[in-house]
Fold this sequence. Notes:
CATH architecture of the largest domain: Alpha-Beta Complex
Radius of gyration: 25 Å
Structural class: alpha/beta
Largest sheet: 5 strands, parallel
Number of domains: 3
CATH class of the largest domain: Alpha Beta
Strand order of the largest sheet: 3-2-4-5-6
Amino acid sequence: MLEPRWRFVGADEALVQRLRQMLGIHPALCRILAQRGVHTFEDAKRFFRPSLAHLHSPFEMQDMRCAVERLAQAIEQGERILLYGDYDVDGTSGVALLYTFLSRFHPHLDYYLPDREREGYGVSLAGIDYAQQTGASLLITIDCGIQAHAPIALARERSIDVIVCDHHLPDGPLPAAHAVLNPRRPDCSYPNKHLSGCGVAFKLAQGLALAKGTPAEELEDLLDFVALSTCCDLVPLVGENRVLTHFGIGRIERQPRTGVWALLQKSGCTPPLKVRDLVFGLGPLLNAAGRMGDARDAVRLLLATERRSAQSQATSLVAKNRKRQQIERAATAVALRQLMHQKGFKERKSIVLFDPSIPRGILGIVASRLVERFHRPAVVLTQDGEGASGSGRSVPGFDLHAALKQCQALLTSFGGHTFAAGLQLPLEHLPAFAEQFEAVVRQTLPAEAEQPEIALCSELELADITPAFWRTLRQFAPFGPGNMTPIFWARNVRDTGQSRILHAGHVQLSVQQNGGPVFTGIGFDLAERFQQLRHQPFDLAFSLQEDTFQGTTTLRLRARAFRPSQNDTPLSTGRL
């Protein structure tokens, strides 16, 4: 593993001082606020006191009025509506959201999720056939559809109107749907460009509710779905997304719906919930349905109303997830062995790996593991009929979608985001793609992106970590992309002699700074580095977390990195 570079995130120190005067809180907290775009007392109030009144009007989204009018017409005329979702958490939670909302006043509903192995990503021709066979005259896509030109054209030929709810980057002309809801389409002025796919579906529900005069409370109990999708799809937790996630997590904590309650029971996640509980606790179980079988199982669980049945369904997803983990570990081990024998691998700046034995359902996970190991953009592919399909993952500072666009002459199709994408190509194009992708990475990967880094928000004396400091810091949550957990650094920290090396390369910390209070904590995968420095003063990069054991809650350090004590400040930049 590469040693991370320490980077200090700069801030306007005059603004930091103004915020300190206005708010009366620790300067380190004011520095974090300044880094996150807070300039005024009103900005701070909106940040610390999220409100559903801060949500944007859905009618700021291009095509929303057209979509709401068509949906309202379908309801009024008793048409059959088919909800078509992608097979990951974003798609399944979006289907569950719209089904939950619409079923309250419209009985003619159905949903369809494609089979990952047989149909692949996006709107399939088989899905259009299903819509026609079941008599659907309106199809609503969720977390897919922005590039489904041929299937949507076929639906139109068969007198099936399509409303697209998607958030992936459009590539060229929009599909000929009745309405295309996507804040990232070039002609859309909607302020939040980073809604999840389920978030776009929520805006459609919100638009219909406003048009029908539906009470706001009927929308608020849908926010758990939005929180699940927003967290698990790793979209930025800023602005509207932060508001939606704040209230969605609160809903899960206070009154979880039956299926989510069952997931909480099986995952062991307990309130107060953090974003990571949804991402690493609930998300993998829901994703296991589509990765290892039928994605409709995830929707069925999210729609469950009876506890015993929900527990049984959740147990089934736990078993599927364990099987997925076993397959993933084996596939990753095979991938690592292949890369170690790949000619010139050490000199390359990218990873392109083809292995027909890797199931399509775990391609993205294997790509993520390779990025974690080597800190390079990675594309992992498997055989798909006469061609190859794959998933890519990126590193901070590198736009994977833009890179694939430069390789599109070799691809059958591609789509996705800056950090994650999917692609298909003919088998005979694989060698050329590997070389073209490597060339693009070499040309466009910034030098600073070649090494992992730790973004440090502020220096902090350990003695300043008080209950009052922690109470304020907690209000910065929910933490996630765009609003990451603040990482501090402390100079000249010493081991008290009570730190212990744990199994699997972790370290249990007991540290002290300048004779001050003793703090305990944990450093995952940091035992070797700690051993090198424990007998001398060191600088500690850390975050703060609460741990509850046997009813007692303790504030502890989460070590992120160590380095020999230095008098200099890490490289400074204003970018978070």
